[in-house]
Structures are given as structure tokens and as C-alpha cells.
Design brief:
Elements (H helix, E strand, L loop, with lengths): L1 H23 L6 H14 L3 H17 L7 H11 L7 H18 L2 H17 L4 H14 L8 H15 L15 H8 L4 H13 L3 H7 L2 H7 L6 H18 L6 H20 L3 H19 L2 H17 L3 H17 L3 H18 L2 H15 L12 H5 L2 H14 L4 H5 L9 E3 L5 E3 L5 H12 L5 H8 L24 H19 L1
Helix pairs in contact: 1-3, 2-3, 2-4, 3-4, 4-5, 4-6, 5-6, 6-7, 7-8, 8-10, 10-11, 10-13, 11-13, 13-14, 13-15, 14-15, 15-16, 15-17, 16-17, 17-18, 18-19, 23-24, 23-25
Amino acid sequence: MCLAANVVCLSKVYLYLIDFASHMYSSVSITSLSFSNKGEMLASTGKIEEACRLGRLALKLVEKNTSSLKYKSAVVLVVYQTIFWYIEPLQSVAESHMMGYKAGLQLGDLLFSGWNLQLSIILNYIGGNNLIALQKAIKECSMKLTQKQSLFPGFILLHSQVTALTQGLRLLDTRIIDNIPTEAELLAKVGEEHAHFKSHKLIRAFLFRQFNDLLDEIAISELTAEAKLSLRPMLYMRILFEGLACFLCSREAEEPAKTALIEKGQSILREARSLAKHSSWNWQNKVLLLEAMNNHTIGNPEEAEQLYLSSIQSAREHKFIHEEAVASELTAEYLFEMGRQAEAYEVYNHSIKCFEEWGAQAVVNRVKADVQSKFGTDVSHLEATTNIDSILGIPSIQQTTQSQKKRSSYGNSSDVGSKKTSDKGTTVEDKKGRKKAGRGGDERMNLAFQLKKQNPDMSLLDALEAGGFIFPNLHADGVKTSQVKDTDDILLSQRKNQLNRRLREDRNRKT
């Protein structure tokens, strides 16, 4: 305990000295870059809040001092690629790298300008941007960059990945753009143990259901741990797909491999939960989907179904169209397994539409073939028997989002004081226009209750965030935990009390 207390104390002292130095030595041009690099080191050890503080300082200093301005493109790259992607929506991080690209062009920093441009495109891929648009952006980027702005391996591998997803695996070894090497040509130089290559290969194996390759590539987490690689956006994608691959492959495996795969999938799920503490926007749908696969695999179908549907809704709400497609296909597979063919057929079609919107035509072709093998060519008895909205219960998410926007626009203390809160969730107005609880139940609280019940070791905060509650100022400087509120302007402490009450009532009913 003494050692831990000393570490915390020293950390606070260090941050105080950093603040002091930023004022005393603001004329030193290298300070902003030094802060961003120190922030990267802190983030790599899991000290995200401290890292974010240094990242914000670095960005402020680079704007404040004329002598630091020349480092703007480099600071933007380091801060967003190594720190802020933990807490900001990935789509926003892509925009920030584009800002870094433009700043570098203006200031003559061609090296970091080119890297920011490539990272912006990579982040757009991770965030679910249309693959056809990405192909165009990749080609334009390769034409813009000079010899001083060489393409780095991760960008070249992305080009091969987009080609495979849009046009098929057969084109992996074909040069589509003259000055971008094929995947095989690059691997001859960097080796097949390159972490980005392993991640891309795993994702391809999963999306194309190449089960032999899936089993081969499930060891990426061990590879990154052994190489002591810091988590970066591209490696972040492997967490979702490696976890999904573990659960999927375990269903066909024999003991002891089956148990080992499930345990590894559960370990990856815990990793995803820990990252969701920093950004529910980026991680909520992924945690829900991994929870669903876990419950499905270990034989809890009722819990799995709600989690599957919630993961689709969450992916849609947070603009991850590719992950909405993946979640929809896995949900359809679950419904088909349960013998609910009409619902399964509708959700399969929703998955196909999402993959088409993403631009992954080669994956679309694979899913369509799978659907035909399951349902045959005559599906007239399945069409128009249900619709995707009724299956997903989409109003529960959409109405909640609209309600959040409406309530957050009130903006003054008198409005806040007039609200009544309840874990019953939906609200109506009484005769005096005041908000009161309705009967429908808050789906976020229902889901948080389920997750906490299934995972007793999960903290109340983790369960609330995984359920869908968003606390925007949770990690903000100067905000005490007792002051943290969600997007409905409800205190975190109140939400915890509501969840505790639900858990207590459930225990009492059992006794």
C-alpha cells in the first residue's frame, strides 16, 4: 500500500511540475513534442488520464508558441495516434490526423504531413468508412506523396485488405496501383510476423469464414504481448475479431482446445471491458457483441439474444456500419440455430445491406451464398413476415438517443431540478408538464443489470457504461466523481443507486 501511495503521489508531483514547466519554458520549441512523447509513454502503461492531460498540454503549447508551431504536425500525430484514440470517437481521430496533414503541408513538414494523411485513411477504415471511397483515397494519397513521404507498411497492408474485401481474395497478389507493392512483396521485406499483417489476416479469415486460418491467427494477442507492442488503432481491431474468432472456433473444437478457446475469448472480453471505461463510443457495441458470443457459446441463449440485438443497435448508433454488419450476421446465425427462420432471414438481409453499404462486395457474395445454402432459392414464405425494426426493437435505442438530445438542451439548473429520475427508464409528462417514469423500462439499465448479474466482479460503473449510459465529463480535469453526470443530466451516483436497487430486489426475490 505504501508503494502504491508513493507512486500516486509522485505521479501528481510530476504532473504539477509539467504544468509549471509549460508556463516557465513555453518559449522552448521542443516542449510540446516532449510532452506528447511523455504522454505516449504514460498511455502505453495504462495511465490514460495522465497521458490525456499531457496530450492536451502539448496541443495547447504548439498553438501558443510560434517557435513550437513547426512541430504541430508531429505533435498531432503522436497525441492522436498514441493517446487520444483511447477516449475520442475513432471517426473524430481520423479528422484530427487530416488536420495534422494540412498543418504539415502549410509548415513544410512533409514527413509528418504524409504520415498523418496515411493514418487518417487507416482510421477511416477502422471507423467503418465506405471501402470504395477508401480505395480512391489510397490511390490519391499514393500519388500525392513524394519520395520523402514514403508509404509505411501499415498503409500498404491496408491497400491489400481493402482490395480483398471489395474485389476478392484472388486479387491479393495483384498490383492494383503501380507504386503500392502487393502484400506478398511487402511481407518479403518485413516478414509475416508483422502485427498489422496478422490483424488483417485474422479479419479476412473471420469475414470469409476461413476456419483453418482463423485457428492459425488466434495467437495475435500473444504476439503483441511478446513483442511489447503498444496498443494502436489497427491493433485495436484485432481485439474484437480475435475474441469473436475464439468463441466461434470453440463451438467446433474438442476438449481441451474448446475450453482453452473459450477462456481466451473471455480474457479478450475483459480487455475490451477495460478499454470501454475510456470510450463507450468506441467500445460499447464491441463489448456487447463479445458478451453475446460468450453467452451463446457457454449455453445462455436468452441472455445472448438481448446482447446480440443490443450490439447491433449500438453499432448503428455509433456509426460503425461494418461492425453492425458483423453483429447482424452473428445474430442471424443464432436465430437460425434457434429455429426462428423468418427472423434469421430478415437479419441476414440486414447484414448484407450493411456489408453493401460498407462496400465489402466480396463479403456480400459470401454471405449471400451462405443464406442460399441455408434457405434455398424459394424464400417467398419468409419474405415480409417480419421486419428488422421489430426484431431489433430499435425504438428503445433511437427514442433514448432523441430523449438524451432533448434533455441535454435544457441547459439550466431549474430544468434539472424539475426532472424525476427512475430506473424504469422511459418518461412521460404529467398534467403539470413534469417528467415522470413510464412503464417501458430503460433498456440501458436493463442491460447494465443483466451484465452485472452475469459478471459479479464487474464494477457498477463498468456495467452502466457497457449498458449504454454515457458520462461525458467522467475523466474531465477538475470534475469530482460526485459531480459526474450522464447525458440525461443524472448523477453517476444516482445511476449506481438505481442499479444497486435492481440487484438488491432481484436477490430478495430469490430468497
